[in-house]
Amino acid sequence: MWTPPKKFFDFMLSKEGQKTLVQKGGFIPVRNDVSPPKGAPSINVLLNNEADMEWLKNDEYINELRTTFQNMILFH
């Protein structure tokens, strides 16, 4: 079944769509057959790096992040 959102996502995930995102928006492509922007890591490098999640245990930091997000995004 054809739906506009499906067509949009199909295009954005296509090789052509990923190239457009790289060229126009500087995004890192999710496809291996599309090169990332100059100087950016590939999606494989990003997926293979383990993120440090210790900061999630810091309630003070989480509260500061939440407040900053609310002030910058939600209340402006």
Question: Which features characterize this protein?
Answer:
76 residues, mainly alpha, extended
How is this structure best described in words?
- This protein is mostly helical.
- It has one domain.
- It has 4 helices and no strands.
- The chain has helices spanning 4-13, 15-25, 43-48, 59-74.
- α1 (4-13) packs across α2 (15-25).
- The N and C termini lie far apart (39 Å).
- The model has no long low-confidence stretch (mean pLDDT 86).
Quick overview of this protein structure:
With 76 residues, the chain is mainly α.
Helix content: 55-70%
Would you tell me the overall average pLDDT?
86
Report the β-strand fraction as a percent range: under 5%
Cα radius of gyration in angstroms? 18 Å
Q: Tally the helices: what do you get?
A: 4
Distance between the termini: 39 Å
Class inferred from helices and paired strands:
mainly alpha
Cα shape: extended
Count of beta strands: 0
- Helix and strand element order: HHHH
Q: How can the largest sheet be summarized? A: none
Low-confidence stretches: none
What's the structural domain tally?
A: 1
How does the SSE layout of this entry go?
Layout: H1 4-13, H2 15-25, H3 43-48, H4 59-74
